[in-house]
Amino acid sequence: MSSKKLDFASRAVFYEPEPESQSVSYPIYMSANFQYGGDIYDQIVAGARKEVNIYSRCGNPTEYKFEEHIAQLTGADACLATASGMAAISHALFGILKAGDHIVTDLTTYSSTHEFFDHRIGDFGITVTFVDTSDPVQVERAFTDKTKVLYFEALANPTMKVPPMRKLVELAHSRGIVVICDNTFASPAVCLPHSFGVDVVVESATKFIGGHNDAVGGVITQKSDILPKDWLEDVRWNTLNKLGAPLSPFNAWLLLRGAQTLALRVEKQCSNAAALARYLEGHEKVKRVFYPGLPSHPNHESAKEQLRNFGAMLSFQVESEEHGVRLLKRLQLCCFAASLGGLRTTTQVPGTMAFLDIPSQERHAMGIVDGLVRFSVGIEHIDDIIADVEQALDQMHIDV
Ligand SMILES: *Cc1c(COP(=O)(O)O)cnc(C)c1O
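Structure tokens predicted for Cystathionine gamma-synthase (400 residues):
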């Protein structure tokens, strides 16, 4: 059956069984290589690639099943799975850019992405301009005749910035510039950037898609009028296969399993996040809350247009970085750890954790103020989450 007419939640669950065994749970093909049996050798010599199995760096049936699932779930024409979210980002960029090209990106991106733009990509002769992509005027001004890519995040860490996608896509496409969006913080359950015209979506599947804090992986999806139709297959053969960052079959299986409960998990996580944001906004020890679902958020209008349920991520500012750390050390139910998107509420202080290696001046330009605490809200009962946060806020002034 075609899943096109189904609701997102049904598409998340549904996939065709493996033809031979008809097993409902898709098998893990834990094999590095595959036999050249029957006429496979002749097919490969004649040019067959994805239609046959050769070697798992070039592709593996479990990985293909995961890719097919994500493509139909997100309305993409094609999907390529990678070993991590960072591999998805670097492969998407290296699949488009050459020495001499220019990128426009946001001041605020995921810490490793920012460091890649700021310290590494220049070594390949690619230049970068950082702007605030929530302001289309700044974006337009930064474009030059060398600009090949506009890159931003659908929901940007940690201020939860929501750039106006339709407008940015229109500006970029009128100059033939490819738009790449990192959708990790939103997840496909909250935002489908292809539906706003974004050409390439990259995502860390480690986060919401997997959802259980147990597997690292990434995805690139394509739906574009300006890229060649076979662009992503070209990235598979000529970039991923050469740089060598395929998703392992076991992780593909874990992420495929995780994706089936994506809609259900994220719906609960979003309603918990909204309730926690409202609670925090009324708390005397909280200076400011950043949640796109709150009318006080500067991008609340873009968020209403582009996001379903406003996401499961929020941040808030307390008196100082030290107060933030003390707060997190006091939490008992919520988990003080890096990463996000899993079943458990996970918290961190972005300034001195994820963004530690970024100088404080740059951090401040990203909106990472001192005393910022970030929550990835999980599926625990909201009363228990709030009770845990409340007891930690109550004791935040006491040295741990
Ligand atoms: C985690 C993350 C990444 C990188 O993903 P990995 O799977 O850790 O490589 C990229 N972008 C965002 C927004 C992320 O949160």
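The chain has two domains: 3-259, 263-394.
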